[in-house]
């Protein structure tokens, strides 16, 4: 009967579980080591994919070929785009007309940055940006669905992270209807509210009546913060940027594609670091497990000899060891993935704010695919780490030592 039972795979699995249960301390330590490896791998994959998605979202959010800002405020514009950090800077409104007259410019639209506010709509400061819906060729295209003006002339679009109550937001006691919500980008634009210039003046007036001061005087009639430029089909971004700087003194021109390319290069270094850490941790776990299995073989030679006497084949002894490795790898990887998911997913917003980089966490399907990939990779690595010990088991004979 025993000889018949030993040939069943469920018995091999039961033997593996029994062996691990007898060595509780060692099993817990190995599972913890595997869990750390899988947690680091899973977190690295999610973070790197979120950063890549954030870059793609930033590319779509820039939308314009050129951004014209006051000279010396390029970094301020970058902080708004990347992290949504509230900022403000101003130049004369006639700049937009001068830009439109430059050869190679197809469209130009002005924006006005109001200083940060902290209101009931959000748990973080919100950048309010006034824009011109009639000349805009960027912002309205970010909306999830088609938008139309609101009765009373208001036109507000809220970023993905900006919450509203029944389609309205409240600033300084004034209630404003939201015409549409922008799709998620993972960039600073998710923390922005865009509104037409008239609505911006109302918000400013409400704040002034309540005693809130602004660095800006709210002069949306004569001031703007930036100009978004779309080039003609045959125009060169570098050439047009140079023409604008010559035609309009005191401005700096940011080339959208070049900005994205430079920023992507910086992000690449972060991605290489994340991938390297994942690979290093997995290799350490692999060789550590291989060493552990190799050392414990000598301790278990009597156990394997008894199994051989009971009728176990060399293949079945190897199967027991591989089952042990698979159980350790599976349990450790699941535990590590759960721990990493509980840290990364609920706190993705905090992570995005802390690293001050475009960050867009993927959907459930994407995260599940990463979890499955980590589970398979870590479990297979654990099984592979037992290969050398399995070869040594193949040389074991009844009542013989494992060499």
The oligomeric state is: single chain
* H/E series: HHHEHEHEEEEEEEHEEHEHHHHHH
State the share of residues found in helices, binned by percent: 40-55%
Assign the structural class, choosing from mainly alpha, mainly beta, alpha/beta, alpha+beta, or little secondary structure: alpha+beta
β-strand amount: 5-15%
Low-confidence stretches: 1-7
Rg, please? 31 Å
Query: What would the principal axes of the Cα set say about the shape?
Result: elongated
Give the rounded overall mean pLDDT. 79
Order of strands across the biggest sheet?
Answer: 8-5-9-4-3-11-1-12
The total beta strand count reads 12
Total helical segments? 13
Outline the biggest β-sheet.
8 strands, mixed
What report would you give on this structure?
By secondary structure, the chain is α+β, with helices and mostly antiparallel strands. Helix content is 55%, strand content 14%. Helix 2 crosses helix 10 (314-344).
Name its key features:
55% helix, two-stranded antiparallel ribbon, alpha+beta, eight-stranded mixed beta sheet, elongated, 403 residues
Q: Could you give a quick summary of the protein structure above?
A:
With 403 residues, the chain is α+β, with helices and mostly antiparallel strands. The chain is 55% helix and 14% strand.
């Amino acid at each position: 009967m025993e000889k018949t039972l030993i040939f069943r795979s469920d018995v091999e699995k039961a033997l593996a579980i029994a062996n691990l249960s007898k060595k509780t301390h060692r099993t817990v330590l190995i599972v913890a080591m595997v869990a750390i490896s899988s947690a680091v791998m899973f977190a690295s994959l999610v973070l790197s994919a979120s950063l890549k998605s954030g870059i793609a979202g930033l590319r779509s959010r820039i939308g314009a070929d050129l951004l014209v800002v006051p000279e010396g405020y390029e970094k301020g514009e970058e902080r708004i785009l990347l992290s949504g950090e509230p900022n403000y800077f101003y130049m004369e409104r006639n700049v937009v007309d001068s830009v439109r007259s430059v050869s190679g410019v197809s469209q130009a639209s002005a924006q006005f940055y109001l200083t940060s506010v902290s209101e009931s709509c959000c748990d973080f400061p919100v950048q309010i940006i006034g824009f011109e819906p009639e000349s805009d060729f960027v912002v309205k295209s970010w909306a999830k669905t088609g938008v139309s003006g609101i009765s009373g002339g208001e036109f507000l679009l809220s970023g993905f992270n900006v919450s509203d109550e029944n389609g309205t937001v409240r600033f300084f006691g004034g209630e404003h209807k939201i015409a549409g919500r922008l799709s998620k980008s993972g960039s600073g634009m998710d923390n922005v509210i865009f509104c037409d210039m008239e609505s911006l003046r109302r918000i400013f007036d409400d704040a002034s009546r309540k005693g809130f001061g602004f660095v800006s005087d709210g002069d949306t009639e004569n001031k703007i913060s930036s100009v978004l430029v779309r080039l003609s089909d045959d125009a060169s971004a570098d050439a047009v940027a140079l023409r604008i700087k010559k035609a309009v003194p005191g401005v700096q021109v940011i080339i959208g594609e070049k900005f994205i390319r430079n920023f992507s290069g910086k992000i690449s270094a972060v991605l290489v670091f994340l991938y390297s850490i994942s690979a290093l941790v997995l290799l350490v776990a692999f060789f550590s497990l291989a060493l552990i299995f190799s050392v414990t073989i000598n301790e278990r030679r009597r156990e394997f000899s008894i199994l051989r006497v009971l009728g176990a084949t060399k293949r079945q002894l190897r199967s027991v060891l591989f089952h042990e490795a698979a159980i350790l790898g599976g349990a450790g990887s699941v535990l590590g993935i759960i721990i990493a998911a509980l840290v990364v997913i609920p706190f993705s917003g905090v992570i995005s704010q802390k690293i001050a980089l475009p960050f867009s966490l993927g959907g459930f399907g994407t995260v599940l695919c990463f979890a499955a990939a980590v589970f398979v990779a870590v479990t297979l690595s654990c099984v592979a780490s037992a290969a050398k010990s399995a070869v040594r088991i193949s040389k074991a004979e009844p009542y013989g030592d494992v060499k």
